[in-house]
Amino acid sequence: KLRPVTTIGPVPSHVFMVSADMSDSTKNALVDSLIKLNYDEHNSILTDLYGAEALVPTTTTMHIGEFGEFINALTGLDQKILDKYDKSK
């Protein structure tokens, strides 16, 4: 029997990620440009391309909160599972 341990807010259907090496000014310009898609004169691009009504700027912490800590705790678990079934080892 399953029971929820924790819940998080809505999961976005599309995520925009950029290189950590991108300058802050370029990141800010990108966010500003994407937010302009929320407005009437550009919204058809957003709805036609992504089927979304609006984009909302957020951070990982704002979006998933403590859930990220649970994900980090699982780091390496996938490799342990693969190693368990790897017949060559």
General description of the model:
This protein has 89 residues and is an all-alpha fold. It has a domain at 24-85. The chain contains 5 helices and no strands. The longest helix is centred in the middle third of the chain and has 13 residues, at 24-36. The relative contact order is 0.12. The model has no long low-confidence stretch (mean pLDDT 80).
Question: How is the secondary structure organized here?
Answer:
Layout: H1 24-36, H2 40-50, H3 60-64, H4 67-73, H5 77-85
Counting H and I runs of at least 4 residues, what is the number of helices?
5
Structural class: mainly alpha
Helix content: 40-55%
Shape: elongated
Q: Give the averaged pLDDT, no decimals.
A: 80
Q: Tally the beta strands.
A: 0
Low-confidence stretches: none
How would a textbook summarize the main sheet? none
N-end to C-end Cα span? 34 Å
> Looking at the chains present, what oligomeric state does this protein adopt?
single chain
Order of helices and strands: HHHHH
Estimated radius of gyration: 19 Å
Strand content: under 5%
Keywords, separated by commas or semicolons:
single chain; 89 residues; mainly alpha
Structure in a nutshell:
The protein has 89 residues and is mainly alpha-helical. The chain is built from five helices and no strands.
